[in-house]
């Protein structure tokens, strides 16, 4: 088994090198530098991979200081999992502790997505890739469309205001006049829209995407919407003979453009597997959560609730620091030590400097999501009392004229209520 595992890891290195120029693989490699070690627990089998952009180096042995180590319990378990036809075999190994991750988990996730993309049977050329329509070209939707284009997909775009289509048309996309026309031209349709009402307006009606969508085609919903709207979409597609995947995304607009989003996916397993290559083009991690579409909506609201509470918590602590005479530079250092995630570090810096004009998610959108969180929690008999406080602050922030600012601008409400002024 040790020899077989060694040969499999050598084969993996060969696959990665041969496929590093594929658009989908290259998009996940460019401007990246990291090292990954794969070995058995006793160190008897090991190979490391060093990524410098599209250049991939690999050697047998154990690297002293990789960014992350994937440590298999033993060679037999590793071979069985790596040879499995189940795409979630590695996740299963992690769950039963046959595989452990030591080091930077984000690098491990990125490595897994690169391997999956490299092993894709598609040639990744535009002629062989299915056309994908993107409806809704706001900050997230335009980034998703850019990632799809970079990955080699023929892309069709529709937006209510036409001026947002111009940069994408210049990059190679085709613009159409209605959602129906977009759906008619594609096998997969990705919607990235504001709320339930905008989704309903785009999906239904004589010019809606259902009017143009062929039977068997797939609608991937990347928006944060309610469970009720999600169930309605499932019913509409079922009656139409098409498929719906609930796939709300996590990440800021720059992550959408670089293909680094996280996608929370629910729907028919076979439809998800058929759509995996499309999803991979704009994500670094895909979490498949089962066939109940409404679970994806609940998961996204739970994630956003966590983000919203931590953001407001940081604002409260900065306010306390100002009132108590604690240097804000010291508070900032504390946050960077406590919360090492880059996104949270970014928000800590943003709140510290009160820089809310570089908008990743505006306050009005945050208020909509917090309202959805509260509704979902009430349905489950759970009180998210912190969300009630955030909803009040966000409402006040909109009244103060901050609706178009980044949602972290709730800090301004906290400061105002503490008497700190402008």
Could you explain how this protein is built, in words?
This protein is α/β, with parallel strands linked by helices. The protein has 3 domains: 2-119, 2-Layer Sandwich (Nonspecific Lipid-transfer Protein, Chain A), CATH 3.30.1050; 132-291, NAD(P)-binding Rossmann-like Domain (Rossmann fold, 3-Layer(aba) Sandwich); 297-417, N-(1-d-carboxylethyl)-l-norvaline Dehydrogenase, domain 2 (Orthogonal Bundle), CATH 1.10.1040.10. 52% of the residues lie in helices and 16% in strands. The chain is built from 19 helices and 14 strands. The protein has helices at residues 2-18, 23-29, 75-83, 89-95, 105-119, 139-150, 166-171, 179-184, 196-203, 209-212, 227-240, 253-258, 269-281, 293-324, 328-338, 342-353, 363-379, 385-399, 410-417, and strands spanning 33-40, 46-52, 55-60, 68-72, 99-103, 132-135, 155-158, 174-175, 188-191, 218-221, 243-246, 249-250, 261-265, 283-288. A 6-stranded parallel beta sheet has the order 8-7-6-9-10-11, with helices on both faces. The chain has a 5-stranded mixed beta sheet with strand order 3-2-1-4-5. β7 (155-158), α7 (166-171) and β8 (174-175) form a beta-alpha-beta unit. α1 packs across α3, α2 (23-29) packs antiparallel against α5 (105-119) and α14 (293-324) packs parallel to α19. The protein is globular and about 70 Å long. The model is unreliable at 122-127 (pLDDT under 50).
């Amino acid at each position: 088994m040790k020899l077989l595992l060694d040969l499999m890891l050598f084969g993996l290195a060969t696959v990665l090198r041969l496929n590093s120029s594929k658009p989908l693989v290259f998009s996940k490699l460019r401007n990246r530098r990291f090292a990954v070690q794969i070995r058995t627990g006793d160190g008897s089998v090991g190979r490391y991979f060093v990524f410098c952009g599209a250049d991939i180096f690999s050697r047998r042995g154990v690297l002293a200081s990789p960014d992350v180590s994937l440590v298999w319990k033993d060679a037999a378990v590793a071979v069985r999992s790596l040879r499995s036809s189940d795409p979630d075999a590695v996740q299963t190994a992690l769950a039963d502790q046959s595989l452990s991750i030591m080091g930077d988990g984000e690098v491990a996730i990125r490595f897994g997505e690169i391997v999956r993309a490299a092993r894709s049977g598609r040639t990744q050329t535009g002629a062989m890739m299915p056309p994908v329509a993107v409806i809704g070209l706001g900050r997230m939707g335009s980034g998703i469309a850019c990632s799809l284009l970079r990955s080699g997909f023929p892309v069709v775009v529709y937006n209510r205001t036409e001026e947002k289509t111009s940069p994408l048309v210049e990059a190679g996309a085709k613009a159409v006049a209605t959602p129906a026309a977009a759906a008619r031209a594609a096998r997969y349709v990705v919607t990235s829209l504001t709320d339930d009402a905008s989704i309903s307006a785009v999906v239904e009606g004589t010019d809606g995407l259902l009017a143009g969508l062929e039977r068997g085609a797939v609608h991937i919903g990347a928006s944060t919407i309610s469970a009720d709207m999600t169930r309605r979409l499932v019913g509409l597609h079922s009656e139409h003979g098409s498929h719906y995947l609930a796939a709300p995304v996590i990440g800021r607009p720059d992550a959408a453009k670089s293909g680094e989003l996280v996608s929370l996916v629910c729907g028919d397993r076979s439809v998800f597997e058929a759509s995996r290559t499309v999803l991979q083009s704009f994500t670094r991690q895909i979490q498949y959560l089962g066939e109940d579409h409404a679970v994806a909506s609940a998961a996204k609201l739970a994630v956003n609730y966590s983000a919203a509470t931590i953001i407001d918590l940081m604002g409260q602590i900065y306010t306390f620091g100002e009132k108590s005479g604690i240097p804000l530079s010291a508070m900032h250092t504390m946050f960077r030590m406590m919360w090492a995630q880059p996104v949270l570090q970014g928000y800590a810096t943003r709140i510290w400097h009160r820089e809310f004009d570089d908008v990743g998610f505006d306050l009005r959108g945050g208020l909509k999501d917090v309202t959805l969180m509260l509704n979902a929690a009430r349905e489950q008999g759970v009180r998210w009392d912190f969300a009630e406080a955030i909803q009040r602050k966000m409402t006040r922030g909109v009244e103060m004229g901050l609706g178009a600012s980044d949602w972290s601008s709730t800090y301004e409400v906290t400061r105002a209520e503490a008497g700190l002024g402008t």
